[in-house]
Amino acid sequence: PLLEAFGRVLASDVLAEVDVPGFARSAMDGYAIRGAESFGASSYEPIRFEIVGTALPGRPFEGPLAPGRAVRIMTGAPIPDGADAVAKAEI
Question: Helix (H, G, I), strand (E, B), or coil: what is residue 73?
């Protein structure tokens, strides 16, 4: 029974047969960007991106993310092609 498993350790690793989810998804709300484009950003030296769309769970942003652009993204949404980071920022 599950309650008897408390405090015990498995004798071997347990591996999933499939990746779940089967895509890269955002772990937080923010803006999907190309991470390298944000290097050096600070409150004194902000870097501006053109917001070109929104990605929602079940409704991904269509198309690749071009340099200098960002997509508003919600938790659980697929990260757009071309993006490799999610930034928390104020507009």
Answer: strand
